[in-house]
Amino acid sequence: MNLATAILVALAAVMLFVAWRRRDGSHRQGITLGWQTLKRTLPLLLLAFLIVGYVEVLSPQDLVEALIGPETGWRGVLVAEVVGMLLPGGPYVVFPLIGALYQAGAGLGQTITLITSWATLAFISVTFELPFMGWRFTAVRWSLSLIIPLLTGLLAQLLFG
User: Could you tell me if 73 and 156 are in contact, meaning their C-beta atoms sit under 8 angstroms apart?
Assistant: First the structure.
């Protein structure tokens, strides 16, 4: 068991105890809602991990290193920003995928760019942002966010690469 798992177990146990102490059935309701969430997301998780497995097996290390390897410099950081924008799904899909690319030879700066680009510029988030925030807000936020992944990747490469 790693530290993250231990923290989540402790947090769940504390929340279960607090809900149980309320004596209003909250502890059963929490378990029921958690089970429903698991049933909804389990197929997606299984598919995501299957895809990650195939990425690890099928992604040629030479190609990963040529596109976003440590020696690709600012060009690799640009490629990583575009790839990060195109990554679909939540963290349970994206982090294993990016981890597989990192293991296949992606550079540190390029990997940080991938994560930062996905977090700030993912095209899929625009489909949710537009209806709630409007075109102007989305355009301003998105255009200002274009520089952030590049800066973080280049800075990581400069300081730690």
Answer: no
| DSSP letters for 125-144 | HHHHHHHHHHHHHHHHHHHH
Domain range enclosing 88: 59-160
Instruction: Of 141, 113, 109, 114, give the one whose Cα is nearest residue 125.
Output: 141
pTM of the model: 0.74
Does a structural domain hold residue 154? Answer: yes
The first and second tokens of residue 99, run together, are 């981890």
Residues 93 and 29 in one domain: no
Write out pLDDT tens, residues 44-54: 788 878 887 88
- What is d(CA 138, CA 122) in angstroms, rounded to the nearest whole number? 12
